[in-house]
Write the structure tokens for this entry.
Amino acid sequence: MFFDGERFGLSRPFRNFVLASLATICLATALLVPTVVAKPTDPTRVDRHIAIMVAALMDRRHLSEMQMDDEISHRALDMFLKSLDRMKLFFLQSDVDEFMAERDNLDDYVKSGDVKIAKKIFDRFLQRVNEQVAVAQVYIDDEHDFTLDETMIRDPDEWGYAKTKEELNERWRKRVKYDLLLELADEVPQEEAVEKLHKRYRGIQRNWEQHSNDELLEDFLTAITTSFDPHSSYMSPSNLDNFTIQMRLELDGIGASLESKYGETIVRRIVPGGAADKDGRLKIEDVIVGVAEGTDGEFVDIVDMKINDVVQLIRGKPNTIVRLEVMPADKSGRKIYDITRARIELKDSEARSEILERPIQETPATDPTASDEHSHAVDSIVPETETVENVTGKILEQQKGSNGPSRRIGVISLPSFYMDMEGRRAGKVDFKSTTRDVRRLLEEFNKQNVDLVVMDLRFNGGGSLPESVEATGLFIDKGPVVQVKGPDGRVQPYPDEEAGEVWSGPLIVLINRFSASASEIFAGAIQDYGRGLVIGDHSTHGKGTVQQLFELGTQILPLQEAPNLGALKMTIQQFYRPSGDSTQNRGVVSDVEIPYRTSYWEGIGEADLDYALKFDRVAPQPHDNYHAVSAPMIEQLKQRSAAREAKAEFFIKEQQKIDQIIKRQQEPTVTLNKEKFLAERAEVNSDKDQEEMFESLEDKDSPVFPMTPYNEEVIAIALDYLELLHEDNVALAK
């Protein structure tokens, strides 16, 4: 419900981006679109069947071989309560004590298909939400003394549930005061801040009141599954549909990104080439207030409706009509737009490329103290649009005033390892695939005489295991890419079996703490083969487990006839690098670390998650060594990079931010004194470089690799790497 971005040193414009990135790591939680239904009723017969199947599969197939017993039951109750009330702002201790009387029974209930306990707990929660939001609305209008040296506990794990209503109300008084201070720190006028909080809290109440049966069952069963490990979860039918959409990068609808704000549905983006774009009438910032099916369907009022339910109404089969009642942003009066739905390609998650041209470094850089920065102000940028089938990139010619020889660096931005599973199963010739798209880009790089490729896997939360193996094979000859161990302890290697490399030149893999799962398979294999350099945050996320999707309908009927009962995404294997090391908890450690605050955020890595599985090793697999990286080379690259960073204003400020984050994480409370609070927030909100970096990653229409100070250092390392490869006479150097 609440995210303490201030603790991580995040300014407000992109806190939501971090939340979205975290969600990407758990793919099953993305793009939720539940069916429009009333708030939860008593569990149905279908709910019971789903619960029984989930319990049976977890008992039989989970990697840990744990059984659904009282230990799991204890964990699950705690996880379910956290999913509803993470900040301990709603339940009383007496509520929790009542639920605890059932803590030994949840496993037995689920095995027998009895999920009524979820409804019982949720009903009490909804009662508390209504009570406490009413209290909060009063506090919003109160006069607050911001000169007091009050504090609020940051971490809800540091306090128990409130024992009395008075104690709970006091928590809300401080919470309201904190939220008002956040608005004032963003220079929102007091009157406007008060109105925003009223709307926000009403929105919280409204969202929970509209929580559906499917959503509640998903919450409860996921509390059970995440008691085994953090990546096992139950997907509701609508969530399964959206998982499929995400993997195949296609959906049927109008092609518009929507946001719910204070009960209004606002158009935030029009997908290029989509139905709304071709129609031309719907614009960014327009407000949609009603939706009707077909040419004569009755309009549904969507004001105050959950955004997921709105999206469900707007989506539909291609070549069908949806009518939208719209309040245009230009205030021209209410309009009705009839738009014919179409199949929309979701290119935001596709691989994108860019070629950067840089002069060869003229100053000898073997002495790090003598090394000039490779990146200076750009005199001119001449964009040339380049299209590789469905992937659009740009070629940027960057000049620094010297007409000397230059290096061409190709950058591929890969947000996920995607694959159209349905298309592949059906034998579709042109099904969407990461490997296919990256192959096309690499082939174009070869034609364009690129000197080095950067694979940008920052914020890539993973995806398809086979795609990570096949994509790695584009850069190596033959050999093992990953090893997989199941519950029986047997280890199976997954090799690249295609001879030859599509790209045989120098390679850099760029990672951060949000690079997870399939990204770690790719980065770990490249590092083990000595095929390229891994740079970025200290390490990747540390997710070293494999999940399999069990569509529950197919457990009882053949695929063609199976009903959509949702799916169980279950951890069934752990993967290991060719060297035998797991990436679990530890991740892939960068050869050259570029200092950035994401390396220091708490709660981001796998090791910070509840019930994460442990790190271990298996026997290494024989594999080639390309000798493109050596210990002496890495040491030189580190020294040169550190010398540049010591003189660069961006990295000097970044180190100060890192120090602040470490200090802030050690402080158990946040001040509610306005003067002190605003002083702390001013430091965060003044961080324009960080804001530009995150906004460029969030804006899918931005350049693939915008020249932020951080990215300038990536290019500087790349130029150093090319120089050292040449000095060492490594065959990869072009």
Observations:
- The longest helix spans residues 116-141.
- The longest strand covers residues 567-576.
